[in-house]
Amino acid sequence: MSYSKTALDQLEGGQIDDFKKSFQQALAHDSDDLLYSLAEELYSLGFSTYSNTIYEKLFKKYPKDDGLKINLAELAIDDDQDDKALNYLSQVAPQSDEYVRSLMVAADLYQTQGMFEISEQKLLEAQKLAPDEDVIQFALAEFYFTTRNYRKAINLYLALITSGTLEMSSVNLVERLGVSYAEIGKFEQAMGYLEQIKPINMNADVKFELAFTYFNLKEYQKAIKAFEDLRDSDPQYSSLYPYLADAYVNLKRVEEALKAIQEGISIDQFNEKIWQKAGQIAEMANEDDLALTYFQKGHEIAPDDMEILTLLSDWYVAHERYSDNLTLLEGVFEDHVVDAHLAYNLALSYQNAGESKKAANNYELAANELSDNPDFLKHATLFYREIGQPDVEKQYLKKYLDLVPDDMEMEALWDEM
Length: 417
What we know:
This protein has 417 residues and is an all-alpha fold. Helix content is 75%, strand content 1%.
């Protein structure tokens, strides 16, 4: 029995001290082929330091062996020694039989560094040199999938599946294809592939994509079942709760929607979008005070989120808490407002507070974008009537009547003018 085989047996048996001795004897006495095999086995078992020792010993003896250069580069990458890895890879010439493999390793390295363009270039070069290699097609597909370039990924996954390759490196290609279709909004195609995967083989992300696909296809019963299945298997998957709640809302099951989003709050109290959705559903359930609490919490977590800010402002205006709205928005915008809807809310609030000049300024700010909004036009008409500016009042009133010609009260104002 070789020292290499003895070392592996001892390692498997947990005899670490004996393994270390046998490893040293293998280095001294075993053939180069045995040592190379030992290095591969040790690397697969996670003992990369020992693999590196062997490869370095062999590299000193065979400095022109490109396979050893690539193996040492991979070990250097694992050890976060990127410059060292690139040095090894740069020594592999384009004429080498190992050049394509070196391109693949380099692509992985550049991708981990966030240098995606260079990584893609390496993979495309490898594909050009070996167009029939499935492993390269797969690597390129995975690159596009990881970088969210799903359309390109789809073409590659489809080609692999068509050729009969359904799995590579423990990755289910049918699953990848289904998720990719879902991510670009082609939900019919996504469902066709995702439904082929047995539930026992689905991870949480794939379960979410299937539920999300049902949701977007308006198959809300199926979506609820799928989201609930994901919740039962992984309750910490917080992204599911807003969609589960929305699925209930679309089936007019508002109380169940509120319960679902409250579950989401208990799971992720720092996700402002869950608080936002909770506030919106609480309003649907006529739980106005609860809605306010949820909007305020969402705004507290994400004060720069314009959606939540607008919902909170709308709540204050709808409940005629104009001073609270002024406190909210004056602190955000200070000297100027950049959102027409919020300018409208400010105009109403300043109008109620008797600050006509500030109200007029905000009506003007909102006018360009809200010139087709009947509620805005009606409020602006009445405001300018109130402060005695009939010319401006007339402009807004005419626009309003063009949109709502059967409003007898406002028609009477027009006749009076």
